[in-house]
Amino acid sequence: MNDFEIGVTKLQSNISWTPKNWFKLERGENLFRVLPPVHSLAKSGKIAQFYAYHGGFKNTKGKVCHFQCVQITDRKSKTITQRCSVCDMVTQLELKYKIAKEQPGVSQEQLKQFNYTQILPFKVQKRFFLNAINASNEIGILQIPYKSYMSLDTLLKKQQDRGLDPTGMRGAFLNFDKQSKYDGDPQVNFSVALATEQKGDDIKIKSHELTPEIIQEMKTKTVDLGTLYKTIDVSEVDALVNSQGEERTKIVDRLFGRPETAATPDNDLLSVDIPGTDATAVGRVEYGSTGLNVVAPQTPAVAAPVAPQSYSEVAPVANVQKTEVARPATAPVANTTPAAVDALSNDDFLKMFMPKQ
Questions:
Q1: Which residues of the chain have pLDDT under 70?
Q2: What angle do CA 191, 192, 194 make, to 5 degrees?
Q3: SS3 labels along the chain
Q4: Closest CA to 147 of 193, 92, 190
Q5: Structure confidence by residue, pLDDT tens digits, 43-71
Q6: pLDDT value at residue 313
Q7: Which of 188, 126, 207 lies closest to 324, judged by CA?
Q8: Looking at residue 181, what is its pLDDT?
Q9: Quick check: 9 and 171 in contact, CB under 8 A?
Q10: What CA–CA distance (Å, rounded) separates 217 from 74?
Q11: Using CA atoms, how far apart are residues 331 and 347, in angstroms rounded to an integer?
Q12: CB under 8 Å to 234, separation ≥6 — which residues?
């Protein structure tokens, strides 16, 4: 284990390969065992990494390659000091979309096609990423939205106050709950709680220990979250936006490596946020003879962490309270990101959760 480190989560600290498993939250309960900090995040103690990133650009093999958004906004004046040509392109396309909606000759199917192929694939996405184990004991990357991460953070702080660490060597499964009335519902509630299981007459926390076998598997199946999405120059982003067809795919190949090894965190499934809501749109996008086609729609000093005890030793519980970030029972709001976060630029927001170099 000389070349593989496992850290202990430090909640007060600041915060390309192709993995096999990518996890996301489905509507309802989602069981995941969050893994401790590994690779470049082991020393910083961070279990999650935040990224604002773009997709939509494909290599010659038709695989999507992702990169970090380059837009920078001055926090005080809210003035954009460095523009991202992809964000500008999306803004222009959204304006065209609004104009097209007012035209009597444009059908709903045409609007949907335009939105799913020309706008949503390129729109900036903001997510936290964690190494995790799912209910089938598969190791992969879990991507969660801001509200779900804040609920997780609150839960972990409460557990560490008790001398427990669900992400530690002797940890536990968590229930990431995503509640909405229907798929695509803009009103979504996120909560995170310790998962429980029935053992005889008792209900106990679903504990999970990292055995030597699991640690060995983690060496090859966990990923370095600190290098998840590539950073490219502003000029390279401009080149992508200003190119088309074969020229664009060649630029993607050059920036992200050979087509057979270019990084892609998903298959051809398109899963993007619907602006102004907590909903996610899912479809399948592919290249055809006519182009894109929708088939279906640093860190401050902190006290040494208390040595965690095993969750298997915790007394049975009658009820495990969920830590929830609830939405008010009102009509959908225009922006679901908290104001304090919304005022930050992508660059400033990212710095909040990355250790200083």
A1: 1-3, 10-20, 258-357
A2: 145
A3: CCCCCECCCCCCCCCCCCCCCEEECCCEEEEEEECCCEHHHCCCCCCEEEEEEEEEEECCCCCEEEEECCCEECCCCCCEEECCHHHHHHHHHHHHHHHHHCCCCCCHHHHHHHHHHHHHHHCCEEEEEEEEEECCCCEEEEEECHHHHHHHHHHHHHHHHCCCCCCCCEEECEEEEEECCCCCCCCCEEEEEECEEEECCEEEECEEECCHHHHHHHHHHCCCHHHCCECCCHHHHHHHHCCCHHHHHHHHHHHHCCCCCCCCCCCCEEEEECCCCCCEEEEEEEEECCEEEEEECCCCCCCCCCCCCCHHHCCCCCCCCCEEECCCCCCCCCCCCCHHHHCCCHHHHHHCCCCCC
A4: 190
A5: 999 999 999 999 999 999 999 999 999 99
A6: 64
A7: 188
A8: 84
A9: no
A10: 43
A11: 31
A12: 70, 82, 83, 84, 85
Task: Tell me the residue type at 108.
Answer: Q
> pTM value?
0.70
The residues spanned by each domain of the chain are: 22-351
What pLDDT sits at residue 49? 95
Q: Look-up: residue for tokens 């279906």?
A: 296
Please check whether residue 240 is in contact with residue 248, taking contact to mean a CB–CB distance below 8 angstroms.
yes
Name the amino acid, one letter, at 167. T
Structure tokens at 239: 């080149």
